[in-house]
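ugh ok fine here u go
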Amino acid sequence: MERFARKLEFNRTMGANGVFNPNIKGEEKESLSHIKRVPGTKPPFTLSQIKKAIPPHCFERSLLRSFSYVVFDLLISSLLGYTAIAYFHLLPSHLAYIAWPIYWILQGCILTGLWVIAHECGHHAFSDYQWVDDTPPPPSHKHREPRPRRSVRPEAQVPNPMVFHVPKQSTRRALGLAVKLLLGWPLYLTFNASGRPYDRFACHYDPYSPIYSDRERLHIYISDLGIFATTFVLYRIAITQGLAFVMSIYGVPLIFVNGFLVTITYLQHTHPSLPHYDSTEWEWLRGALVTVDRDYGILNKVFHNIADTHVAHHLVATIPHYHAMEATIAIKPILGEYYQFDSTPFYKALWREAGECLYVEQDEKGVFGSGTSFNVSAINI
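structure:
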């Protein structure tokens, strides 16, 4: 019971990670063989030293520049939508079957980038004016994830301290990923699935949910009104144009957005190299370093560098995305082996982590993780 309580306490406080599944083989084993564990000891540097290494202009937030990204994303999204509405019905059926999936993917990517900008508003990285960052349209990252420093009390992708079933078969792993990508985000918002446990039911749409503080409740009311208004508009469009129209133009791209959000969040905080800490060892800086930068190729720019500069974001969340890469380059010499970057293509990494990062096990007092690569002795089911 004491051991279970210790693991439960870890589950309440830590971010996502796991230890290696002993059922690894072939290409997956090769992809993991180079991974080196991030030190679980106290870093030899301070947050102040990290900030001093960052060029001063990286902390500057330009309202005009930030809005330019919003306008650009909205223009591209509108152009895609107009093209689909105005021209796709003119295409031969065999070309329409190709055009629609391309539209869904492209629109999903652009709208994910727009969500990332809302995410910046939630971290006060959009402008110097808090009222601007808090201004509707309200369904922003701030109102749905009110604690900007995820490493303090991470709200999503909380790891399992033990595993009840190891998905040895690829079909089971694929099914688990499909459920996570399709339903993970709405289940998280509605039922706090994969989120930090609370002493009562937690829902992101409930202003009185234990997720929020008293000062945040008004924001949730406004956010909920915005969601109801959007739903009503979609309902009216469905009445006049049909449900298939709404799903084709808006619904399917939204599914892609949800899938991208789950993928990005999951891979940011799930990696075999990352240590995690219980309440006896945790401190802010060590917790902030429990993340990894990922390479999404051309999508790095589309997603406004949310994935390949996330370490810097964890450390100084108010740096806008257009300065984040420069800040990342500046802090890497300071962080040294505490900085983690994985260039594995995100789709391969998603498959790998879904099979290998299943749960966490204690390596030493207060420190959890995988130990060294393929240290099967660390696994105790």
